[in-house]
Amino acid sequence: MGRIRQYPPHLFLPRRQARHTAGMTEAITQVLRHLAARELSEARSTLRHLAQAGDPEASLLEVTLTANGTGGAPDWRKAFAQLADCGARFGGEFADQLALMEQMDLDRDGYPKRLPEGDLIDASIQMQRFEGFLSPAECAFIARTASDILAPSMVADARTGAFKAHPVRRSSEAPIGPTREALPIQAILRRIAKASGTAVTQGEALTVLHYAPGQEYRPHLDTLPDTANQRQKTFILYLNDAFDGGATHFDVLGITVKPRAGDALVFDLVGQHGSPAMAARHAGLPVTAGAKWIATRWIRARPFDVWRGPEAA
């Protein structure tokens, strides 16, 4: 796992790809060749040309990549100005994103001006619950961003690199990769960073998980073997609560957290000396009725580069 992680291809697909022009397809192909920063820069150049020509799809993707720094330095203020301009020109999704962010009370760099206060559940792993961390509209936006690419949870075989069914997690999942990180998503990632006392660059791709009745995540640790950039924290966003079962259970601590829509849970994964904290072992209990939606952000010790792998940053 210390090597470049083999992400499924849909991690890098932007939304609403059916409307891409030929030029847009060329740009996406460049972005998918993610190992070389030079090619990412070329993709940004192609997007700039298409956006200037009035292509709304290219404009939407350019806003996203400008903010998260794919193919260049991250620039929230420039990206927000681009989004505002596109909102005036195109309306639609651009205007919807602007309206959502107007409700977020952000500073000029996309960070929240204030946070809900966290309630300490357990001091040994600094487990905190934030009530009302997300609004209902934000929960819906996260789920909608990932809904069209949900796929059965898989894991890469350490020997072959091929994907196989996840051995302990029975669910559907969708990582919100760098081409899908619309500005509302990136604002939420900044909120997670501020609430967890980390840098936004330390986070892996926000991963949406969907559990149907009978599905679960068996007891596990979120730390990884053989990596020099270990996961330090897990941050869970509960996107809904219209289901039965599905609680987050910490078997070593004997603590069960019942999901509530809009709440968030954060806890440490390692102890003082960097070894996995057994107290952080947890499970997503089986869903017995309805469908459970959550999103998880795993936070590393150092910056995490989704394009080049966890050790590259």
TrEMBL record:
<dbReference type="GO" id="GO:0051213">
    <property type="term" value="F:dioxygenase activity"/>
</dbReference>
<keyword id="KW-0479">Metal-binding</keyword>
<dbReference type="InterPro" id="IPR006620">
    <property type="entry name" value="Pro_4_hyd_alph"/>
</dbReference>
<dbReference type="GO" id="GO:0031418">
    <property type="term" value="F:L-ascorbic acid binding"/>
</dbReference>
<dbReference type="InterPro" id="IPR045054">
    <property type="entry name" value="P4HA-like"/>
</dbReference>
<dbReference type="Pfam" id="PF13640">
    <property type="entry name" value="2OG-FeII_Oxy_3"/>
</dbReference>
<keyword id="KW-0847">Vitamin C</keyword>
<protein>
    <submittedName>
        <fullName>Prolyl 4-hydroxylase</fullName>
    </submittedName>
</protein>
<keyword id="KW-0408">Iron</keyword>
<keyword id="KW-0560">Oxidoreductase</keyword>
<keyword id="KW-0223">Dioxygenase</keyword>
<dbReference type="GO" id="GO:0016705">
    <property type="term" value="F:oxidoreductase activity, acting on paired donors, with incorporation or reduction of molecular oxygen"/>
</dbReference>
<dbReference type="InterPro" id="IPR044862">
    <property type="entry name" value="Pro_4_hyd_alph_FE2OG_OXY"/>
</dbReference>
<dbReference type="GO" id="GO:0005506">
    <property type="term" value="F:iron ion binding"/>
</dbReference>
<feature type="domain" description="Fe2OG dioxygenase">
    <location>
        <begin position="201"/>
        <end position="301"/>
    </location>
</feature>
<dbReference type="InterPro" id="IPR005123">
    <property type="entry name" value="Oxoglu/Fe-dep_dioxygenase_dom"/>
</dbReference>
